Amino acid sequence: MSLWIRPTLLTLELMAFTVMMAGTLGMIAAWASSVLSRGNTFQRLLNQLFLTIHLLIASFPLILQAVAWESTAGKFGLTMLTQTGVRGVAGSPYGFFGGLIATGWIHGITGASIVYLATYFGARRIPIALIETARLQFNENQLWWKIRLPLAKPWWITSLLAVAMLAATEMTVADLYGYRTLADEFYLLYAANPSTSSIIQTCVVPLILMVGGSLWWTITQQRSLALKHHQEKDFDVYDEYNSVQSSPTFSLFSTLTALCVLSLLTLIASFTPLFSTLLKLGQQIQIQGKTFSANWSAQLLVERLLEAPIVFRDEYFWTVVLSSFTSSLAIIFAWPMAAKGRTAIGIQRSFDFATLGIAIIPGPIIAMTVIHFFQLPVPGFQDLYERSIIPTSIALLARAVPIAYWLIRAGYSAIPDRQLDSLRLEMHWLRRLITVDRYYVGRSLLQAWLIAALFASGDLPASLPVLPPGMTTVGSRLFGLLHSGARFQEAALAFWYLFAIAISALILLRIGATAPKMQKNGVN
User: Fold this and answer.
1) 283, β-bridge pairs
2) Fewest 10 Å CB contacts: which of 17, 75, 195, 369?
3) pLDDT (tens digit per residue) in 265-302
4) Three-state DSSP class for 377?
5) For residue 128, what are the CA distances in angstroms to 29, 135, 156, 178, 436?
6) Helix, strand, or coil here: 521?
7) C-alpha 147 chain-centroid distance
8) Which of 187, 62, 64 is nearest to 486 (CA)?
């Protein structure tokens, strides 16, 4: 028991650091984005740009964030080569970027984007009648902090719980920087021979988060029912933000402050690490004794970018195959669950609890369970484990299925009850699923498939121990290379992976942009 005290405390410390950083930055950014959304056309376009950039940041797997920030402030990063990252740790040749600082910073930057998006969109879904009443007493800034932010509590608290859960269960970044959290401790010491006590100790913090989050959600659901009574019959939550004339705008000082806030956060969270990664691609370091020199060449950058798809073709190929196969399986499981749950509230609650319970299990435990399952003396299991991606996909389904289920569930929730009941009377639910539901939740299915694929491509804690011999993905290769610091190989490997994720996120954004039009027609 005493062996788990230190990793438990380190996990709680990382969670607190991450939540405070993500919550502070995310809520301030959400306020700034709300200010710009009520400005002129140029300001609204800037706001959409900032939202898109932070959607991309939130979509990137943490291993990609590790590459970017290792290139910025790590062992051979930009700050070290320019001497701005002074070797602040006595006796350390690599400077301050390590341990809690590095792990918490990477988690916090990703979490800030998640909280920012959740808070901003949550604040937009407050009935206009309440806002207009509150304007009699408060100015626009007071209205945001005293009315909008408290009423958007279900959104930003849920996002903070997600950030804390990620810090409690993810182990790749913590392992890179020697920060021994519960998940990392299990991976290092108990992966080969897990015991009951080690599994319980590793899951205790995520379980507490889940139970507490479930109780909080139950309470807030009761409060949200009262809020709905203020909404008009044909209420549209986007009206206030799509029309500049519908409400007073913020002052010029607030607008300039908001622009500075979002510009600074975006510079720190995206442009600085991206610039450092591109710098690393064209960089050539020469070490002579205790001194080193760094030269940069645009020709080297282009050459290494063009070589990467050839040098790392196996990694790219297996990442695409594994993520596509896993997301397809996730849809096969999640779609019937969401459809069946939509017609029966009791079944839906069971599916909700089951998917949340599976999602909180740390990845290494899922991986070890799959490994032990395929070690059973069943004909064909050994061949499947050594020569196929099926065990790896099964391990990844622990995250992919809950993600797909909740996205498809949201699509079903937009279908009017009367329309759903009429369809239920006319045909069997499985037939309705294939012939009718496919049209109504088509966007949700596509979004679920893409997002599940993105998460599966970067879910290293679950996939790393279960990869077949000789098979490497982009994530597993980066995980191995990054232990020696980010160099041009890691930067080149990560660049095209980052590019593919960015394209996928933009497709998701485009799909989501059409959702309000469909909602008005009562379709989605």
Assistant:
1) 296
2) 195
3) 999 998 888 888 888 888 777 666 666 666 788 888 89
4) coil
5) 22, 11, 20, 49, 34
6) coil
7) 28
8) 64
